[in-house]
TrEMBL record:
Domain Aspartate/glutamate/uridylate kinase: 88-298
Name of this chain's protein: Isopentenyl phosphate kinase
GO CC terms in record: cytosol
Lineage, broadest ranks: Eukaryota, Viridiplantae, Streptophyta, Embryophyta, Tracheophyta
UniProt key word ATP-binding: yes
Assigned EC number: 2.7.4.26
Pfam families xref list: AA_kinase (PF00696)
Key words, A-Z: ATP-binding, Isoprene biosynthesis, Kinase, Nucleotide-binding, Transferase
Sequence positions that bind ATP: 97, 223, 277, 281
Gene3D superfamilies per UniProt: Acetylglutamate kinase-like (3.40.1160.10)
EC class of the enzyme, as a word: transferase
Amino acid sequence: MELNHQESRSRSIRCIVKLGGAAITCKNELEKIHDENLEIVASHLRQAMMEGSAPSKVIGMDWSKRPGSSEIACDVDVLGDQESSEFSKFVVVHGAGSFGHFQASRSGVHKGGLEKPIVKAGFVATRISVTNLNLEIVRALAREGIPTIGMSPFACGWSTSKRDVASADLSTVAKTIDSGFVPVLHGDAVLDNILGCTILSGDVIIRHLADHLKPEYVVFLTDVLGVYDRPPSEPDAVLLKEISVGQDGSWKVVSPVLEHTDKKVDYSVAAHDTTGGMETKISEAAMIAKLGIDVYIVKAATTHSQRALNGQLRDNVPEDWLGTIIRFSK
Protein backbone atom coordinates (compact mmCIF):
# COMPACT_ATOMS: atom_id res chain seq x y z
CA MET A 1 0.00 0.00 0.00
CA GLU A 2 1.32 3.46 -0.92
CA LEU A 3 0.64 6.75 0.84
CA ASN A 4 -1.60 9.39 -0.68
CA HIS A 5 -0.30 12.96 -1.02
CA GLN A 6 -2.26 14.23 1.98
CA GLU A 7 -0.83 11.51 4.26
CA SER A 8 2.77 12.08 3.22
CA ARG A 9 2.47 15.88 3.60
CA SER A 10 0.93 15.74 7.09
CA ARG A 11 3.65 13.40 8.33
CA SER A 12 6.51 15.97 8.04
CA ILE A 13 9.46 13.60 8.31
CA ARG A 14 12.58 15.52 9.19
CA CYS A 15 15.29 13.13 8.04
CA ILE A 16 15.96 9.65 6.70
CA VAL A 17 19.35 8.32 7.81
CA LYS A 18 21.31 5.52 6.15
CA LEU A 19 23.78 3.82 8.46
CA GLY A 20 26.32 2.40 6.01
CA GLY A 21 27.32 -1.19 6.68
CA ALA A 22 31.01 -0.30 6.47
CA ALA A 23 30.58 2.40 9.14
CA ILE A 24 28.75 0.33 11.76
CA THR A 25 30.42 -3.06 11.23
CA CYS A 26 34.03 -4.17 10.87
CA LYS A 27 33.85 -4.96 7.18
CA ASN A 28 36.80 -7.37 7.12
CA GLU A 29 35.69 -9.31 10.21
CA LEU A 30 32.68 -11.55 9.69
CA GLU A 31 29.62 -10.44 11.68
CA LYS A 32 31.46 -8.00 13.96
CA ILE A 33 29.82 -4.71 14.94
CA HIS A 34 31.92 -1.54 15.22
CA ASP A 35 30.67 -0.85 18.76
CA GLU A 36 32.45 2.48 19.23
CA ASN A 37 31.10 3.96 15.98
CA LEU A 38 27.59 2.67 16.66
CA GLU A 39 27.59 4.18 20.15
CA ILE A 40 28.67 7.61 18.83
CA VAL A 41 26.16 7.45 15.96
CA ALA A 42 23.36 6.60 18.43
CA SER A 43 24.32 9.59 20.59
CA HIS A 44 24.46 11.92 17.54
CA LEU A 45 21.05 10.68 16.39
CA ARG A 46 19.50 11.35 19.78
CA GLN A 47 20.93 14.89 19.82
CA ALA A 48 19.65 15.55 16.29
CA MET A 49 16.17 14.21 17.09
CA MET A 50 15.98 16.26 20.31
CA GLU A 51 17.17 19.51 18.69
CA GLY A 52 15.06 22.41 19.93
CA SER A 53 13.91 20.45 22.99
CA ALA A 54 15.26 20.84 26.51
CA PRO A 55 17.96 18.23 27.24
CA SER A 56 16.60 15.36 29.29
CA LYS A 57 18.05 12.35 31.07
CA VAL A 58 18.60 9.37 28.77
CA ILE A 59 16.15 6.63 29.74
CA GLY A 60 17.39 3.36 28.23
CA MET A 61 14.78 1.21 26.49
CA ASP A 62 16.80 -1.98 26.07
CA TRP A 63 15.61 -4.08 29.02
CA SER A 64 17.22 -7.33 27.90
CA LYS A 65 20.38 -8.96 29.16
CA ARG A 66 23.58 -8.10 27.33
CA PRO A 67 26.46 -10.56 26.76
CA GLY A 68 28.73 -10.65 29.79
CA SER A 69 26.13 -9.08 32.07
CA SER A 70 24.02 -10.88 34.65
CA GLU A 71 21.59 -8.00 35.16
CA ILE A 72 18.99 -6.17 33.13
CA ALA A 73 19.24 -2.37 32.98
CA CYS A 74 15.70 -1.12 33.53
CA ASP A 75 14.81 2.43 34.64
CA VAL A 76 11.13 1.82 35.36
CA ASP A 77 11.16 3.87 38.59
CA VAL A 78 12.72 6.87 36.83
CA LEU A 79 10.22 6.61 33.98
CA GLY A 80 7.33 7.20 36.36
CA ASP A 81 8.43 10.81 36.92
CA GLN A 82 9.70 11.43 33.39
CA GLU A 83 7.94 13.83 31.04
CA SER A 84 7.46 12.60 27.50
CA SER A 85 10.40 13.54 25.23
CA GLU A 86 9.58 15.29 21.97
CA PHE A 87 11.54 13.68 19.13
CA SER A 88 11.45 15.06 15.60
CA LYS A 89 10.49 12.39 13.05
CA PHE A 90 13.42 10.35 11.75
CA VAL A 91 13.60 7.05 9.86
CA VAL A 92 16.74 4.88 10.01
CA VAL A 93 17.84 2.39 7.35
CA HIS A 94 21.06 0.40 7.67
CA GLY A 95 23.26 -1.65 5.39
CA ALA A 96 24.64 -5.08 6.16
CA GLY A 97 28.41 -4.57 6.14
CA SER A 98 30.04 -7.78 7.40
CA PHE A 99 26.58 -9.27 8.07
CA GLY A 100 24.63 -10.88 5.22
CA HIS A 101 26.94 -10.02 2.31
CA PHE A 102 29.07 -13.13 2.81
CA GLN A 103 26.02 -15.44 2.98
CA ALA A 104 24.38 -13.76 -0.03
CA SER A 105 27.46 -13.79 -2.26
CA ARG A 106 28.42 -17.40 -1.41
CA SER A 107 24.93 -18.67 -2.29
CA GLY A 108 24.08 -16.30 -5.15
CA VAL A 109 20.84 -15.07 -3.52
CA HIS A 110 21.16 -11.72 -5.34
CA LYS A 111 20.98 -13.53 -8.70
CA GLY A 112 17.76 -15.40 -7.85
CA GLY A 113 16.83 -19.03 -8.50
CA LEU A 114 15.03 -20.17 -5.35
CA GLU A 115 14.54 -23.64 -6.86
CA LYS A 116 18.27 -24.31 -6.17
CA PRO A 117 18.89 -25.69 -2.65
CA ILE A 118 22.01 -23.52 -2.23
CA VAL A 119 20.02 -20.33 -3.00
CA LYS A 120 17.16 -21.28 -0.67
CA ALA A 121 19.64 -22.06 2.14
CA GLY A 122 21.52 -18.82 1.42
CA PHE A 123 18.25 -16.84 1.55
CA VAL A 124 17.56 -18.19 5.05
CA ALA A 125 21.20 -17.67 6.17
CA THR A 126 21.27 -14.10 4.82
CA ARG A 127 18.08 -13.17 6.64
CA ILE A 128 19.31 -14.68 9.92
CA SER A 129 22.46 -12.58 9.63
CA VAL A 130 20.87 -9.22 8.66
CA THR A 131 18.03 -9.51 11.19
CA ASN A 132 20.60 -10.22 13.93
CA LEU A 133 22.38 -6.99 12.97
CA ASN A 134 19.06 -5.12 12.87
CA LEU A 135 18.27 -6.22 16.43
CA GLU A 136 21.68 -5.05 17.68
CA ILE A 137 21.25 -1.63 16.03
CA VAL A 138 17.73 -1.27 17.45
CA ARG A 139 19.15 -2.14 20.89
CA ALA A 140 22.03 0.35 20.59
CA LEU A 141 19.64 3.19 19.66
CA ALA A 142 17.17 2.11 22.38
CA ARG A 143 19.95 2.32 24.98
CA GLU A 144 20.24 6.01 23.97
CA GLY A 145 16.54 6.47 24.74
CA ILE A 146 15.45 6.45 21.08
CA PRO A 147 12.13 4.55 20.73
CA THR A 148 13.21 2.31 17.86
CA ILE A 149 11.24 -0.47 16.16
CA GLY A 150 13.05 -2.93 13.89
CA MET A 151 11.21 -3.48 10.60
CA SER A 152 12.45 -6.13 8.18
CA PRO A 153 11.37 -5.41 4.57
CA PHE A 154 10.66 -9.11 3.87
CA ALA A 155 8.35 -9.39 6.88
CA CYS A 156 6.71 -6.02 6.07
CA GLY A 157 5.68 -7.16 2.59
CA TRP A 158 8.39 -5.58 0.45
CA SER A 159 9.09 -7.43 -2.80
CA THR A 160 10.86 -6.62 -6.06
CA SER A 161 10.60 -7.13 -9.79
CA LYS A 162 14.05 -7.46 -11.39
CA ARG A 163 15.49 -5.84 -8.23
CA ASP A 164 13.24 -2.74 -8.43
CA VAL A 165 10.70 -2.28 -5.64
CA ALA A 166 7.41 -3.86 -6.79
CA SER A 167 5.44 -3.59 -3.56
CA ALA A 168 6.02 -2.11 -0.11
CA ASP A 169 3.50 -1.72 2.67
CA LEU A 170 4.47 1.81 3.68
CA SER A 171 1.33 2.16 5.81
CA THR A 172 3.10 0.09 8.52
CA VAL A 173 6.08 2.47 8.44
CA ALA A 174 3.73 5.48 8.51
CA LYS A 175 1.73 4.17 11.49
CA THR A 176 4.97 3.44 13.35
CA ILE A 177 6.17 7.04 12.82
CA ASP A 178 2.78 8.52 13.75
CA SER A 179 2.79 6.52 16.98
CA GLY A 180 6.04 8.23 18.04
CA PHE A 181 8.46 5.43 17.16
CA VAL A 182 11.54 5.47 14.93
CA PRO A 183 11.41 2.69 12.30
CA VAL A 184 14.73 0.93 11.66
CA LEU A 185 14.74 -0.87 8.30
CA HIS A 186 17.61 -2.70 6.63
CA GLY A 187 18.87 -4.24 3.41
CA ASP A 188 17.20 -7.64 3.16
CA ALA A 189 16.73 -10.79 1.11
CA VAL A 190 13.29 -10.52 -0.53
CA LEU A 191 11.11 -12.35 -3.04
CA ASP A 192 11.34 -11.14 -6.65
CA ASN A 193 8.51 -11.57 -9.19
CA ILE A 194 10.93 -12.38 -12.04
CA LEU A 195 14.10 -13.75 -10.41
CA GLY A 196 12.44 -15.64 -7.55
CA CYS A 197 14.51 -13.77 -4.97
CA THR A 198 17.17 -11.07 -4.69
CA ILE A 199 18.81 -8.62 -2.30
CA LEU A 200 16.98 -5.34 -1.71
CA SER A 201 19.69 -2.85 -0.74
CA GLY A 202 19.29 -0.22 1.96
CA ASP A 203 20.07 2.48 -0.63
CA VAL A 204 17.11 1.40 -2.81
CA ILE A 205 14.88 1.31 0.29
CA ILE A 206 15.89 4.88 1.17
CA ARG A 207 15.07 6.17 -2.31
CA HIS A 208 11.62 4.53 -2.15
CA LEU A 209 10.96 5.94 1.35
CA ALA A 210 12.16 9.42 0.34
CA ASP A 211 9.88 9.39 -2.70
CA HIS A 212 6.81 8.70 -0.52
CA LEU A 213 7.64 10.27 2.85
CA LYS A 214 9.31 13.45 1.47
CA PRO A 215 11.83 14.10 4.28
CA GLU A 216 13.47 17.52 4.63
CA TYR A 217 16.90 15.96 4.01
CA VAL A 218 18.67 12.58 3.79
CA VAL A 219 22.01 11.62 5.37
CA PHE A 220 24.20 8.68 4.28
CA LEU A 221 26.72 7.81 7.02
CA THR A 222 29.75 5.99 5.57
CA ASP A 223 33.28 4.94 6.56
CA VAL A 224 34.97 7.61 4.40
CA LEU A 225 34.60 11.42 4.30
CA GLY A 226 32.29 11.36 1.27
CA VAL A 227 32.42 10.66 -2.47
CA TYR A 228 35.85 10.75 -4.14
CA ASP A 229 36.82 10.94 -7.80
CA ARG A 230 38.58 7.56 -7.37
CA PRO A 231 39.02 5.02 -4.54
CA PRO A 232 39.89 7.11 -1.45
CA SER A 233 42.84 4.82 -0.66
CA GLU A 234 44.66 6.19 -3.73
CA PRO A 235 47.06 9.07 -2.96
CA ASP A 236 45.60 11.58 -5.47
CA ALA A 237 41.94 10.95 -4.56
CA VAL A 238 39.91 14.19 -4.42
CA LEU A 239 36.87 14.61 -2.14
CA LEU A 240 33.90 15.85 -4.17
CA LYS A 241 32.20 18.55 -2.07
CA GLU A 242 29.10 19.14 -4.20
CA ILE A 243 27.37 17.16 -6.94
CA SER A 244 24.55 18.76 -8.90
CA VAL A 245 21.68 16.67 -10.30
CA GLY A 246 19.76 17.76 -13.40
CA GLN A 247 16.09 17.31 -14.31
CA ASP A 248 16.91 14.15 -16.27
CA GLY A 249 18.74 12.57 -13.31
CA SER A 250 22.20 13.13 -14.78
CA TRP A 251 24.78 14.55 -12.38
CA LYS A 252 28.00 16.56 -12.50
CA VAL A 253 30.63 17.65 -10.00
CA VAL A 254 30.22 21.33 -9.09
CA SER A 255 32.89 21.61 -6.41
CA PRO A 256 35.82 21.30 -6.55
CA VAL A 257 36.33 22.07 -10.25
CA LEU A 258 38.14 19.00 -11.59
CA GLU A 259 40.69 19.20 -14.41
CA HIS A 260 39.00 16.43 -16.37
CA THR A 261 35.31 17.18 -15.86
CA ASP A 262 34.41 14.58 -18.48
CA LYS A 263 36.24 11.88 -16.47
CA LYS A 264 33.97 9.30 -14.93
CA VAL A 265 34.15 8.93 -11.16
CA ASP A 266 35.97 5.68 -10.42
CA TYR A 267 34.31 3.25 -8.00
CA SER A 268 35.69 0.33 -6.07
CA VAL A 269 33.35 -2.40 -4.82
CA ALA A 270 34.34 -5.10 -2.35
CA ALA A 271 34.23 -8.60 -3.87
CA HIS A 272 31.51 -9.74 -1.43
CA ASP A 273 29.32 -6.62 -1.82
CA THR A 274 26.13 -7.80 -3.56
CA THR A 275 24.48 -4.34 -3.53
CA GLY A 276 26.68 -2.32 -5.91
CA GLY A 277 28.71 -0.22 -3.44
CA MET A 278 29.28 3.51 -3.98
CA GLU A 279 27.96 3.54 -7.57
CA THR A 280 24.51 2.40 -6.37
CA LYS A 281 24.72 4.91 -3.51
CA ILE A 282 25.34 7.87 -5.86
CA SER A 283 22.68 6.89 -8.40
CA GLU A 284 20.09 6.39 -5.64
CA ALA A 285 21.18 9.67 -3.97
CA ALA A 286 20.82 11.46 -7.33
CA MET A 287 17.24 10.20 -7.67
CA ILE A 288 16.46 11.48 -4.17
CA ALA A 289 18.05 14.87 -4.95
CA LYS A 290 15.89 15.07 -8.10
CA LEU A 291 12.88 15.20 -5.75
CA GLY A 292 14.28 18.46 -4.34
CA ILE A 293 15.66 16.77 -1.21
CA ASP A 294 19.28 17.50 -0.24
CA VAL A 295 21.46 14.43 0.34
CA TYR A 296 24.61 14.46 2.49
CA ILE A 297 27.18 11.66 2.24
CA VAL A 298 29.52 11.96 5.22
CA LYS A 299 31.77 9.98 7.54
CA ALA A 300 29.93 8.46 10.52
CA ALA A 301 30.79 9.36 14.13
CA THR A 302 32.43 12.71 13.25
CA THR A 303 31.54 16.36 13.87
CA HIS A 304 30.83 16.55 10.12
CA SER A 305 28.13 13.87 10.33
CA GLN A 306 26.71 15.46 13.47
CA ARG A 307 26.23 18.78 11.62
CA ALA A 308 24.54 16.97 8.73
CA LEU A 309 22.18 15.07 11.05
CA ASN A 310 21.30 18.29 12.91
CA GLY A 311 20.24 19.90 9.62
CA GLN A 312 22.86 22.64 9.95
CA LEU A 313 23.95 22.45 6.29
CA ARG A 314 20.64 23.29 4.68
CA ASP A 315 21.10 27.05 4.47
CA ASN A 316 24.84 27.45 4.75
CA VAL A 317 27.68 24.95 4.34
CA PRO A 318 30.73 25.96 6.41
CA GLU A 319 34.12 25.94 4.64
CA ASP A 320 35.52 23.47 7.16
CA TRP A 321 32.73 20.91 6.64
CA LEU A 322 33.96 17.70 5.00
CA GLY A 323 31.50 15.56 3.10
CA THR A 324 29.59 15.43 -0.19
CA ILE A 325 26.33 17.28 -0.84
CA ILE A 326 24.12 16.05 -3.67
CA ARG A 327 21.39 18.49 -4.57
CA PHE A 328 18.95 19.29 -7.36
CA SER A 329 19.96 22.02 -9.79
CA LYS A 330 16.83 23.93 -10.82
